[in-house]
Design a protein that fits this description.
The protein is built from seven helices and no strands. By secondary structure, the protein is mainly alpha-helical. This is Transcriptional regulator.
């Protein structure tokens, strides 16, 4: 499914005008996105995702599940804040190393399953 097709599906019975107004762009510009003539920038992708209450990964075709529950969203936000705080305590040269170790740990956990 293309980006434009996803937008049409998410719009449902609303008009292009309604959605465009909700994300603060012109109807013509929104129409270009739905018809796959143009692609929005990252800020606008986030606005569109927020408007439709879906993930940006879903809009970009990176996830099949379009919706995060409020609990999932809060959990992900909290985890990101904790990780950011921990990483910030390290020197720049150590930050990449810490992320590499975390990635290796995740791969190890996946392999155990």
């Amino acid at each position: 499914m293309t980006f434009g097709e996803k937008l049409k599906e998410l719009r449902g019975s609303r008009t292009q005008e309604e959605v465009a107004k909700g994300i603060e762009i012109s109807r013509a510009r929104y129409s270009h996105f739905e018809n796959d003539r143009n692609e929005p920038d990252l800020q606008l992708i986030q606005k569109i995702a927020d408007y439709h209450k879906v993930t940006t990964d879903y809009l970009l075709g990176r996830a099949e599940d379009s919706r995060l529950t409020q609990e999932d969203d809060e959990k992900a936000t909290e985890m990101a804040k904790r990780l950011e705080k921990l990483i910030a305590e390290l020197e720049d040269s150590e930050q990449d190393k810490a992320l590499e170790h975390l990635e290796m740990f995740v791969q190890y956990q996946k392999a155990k399953k």
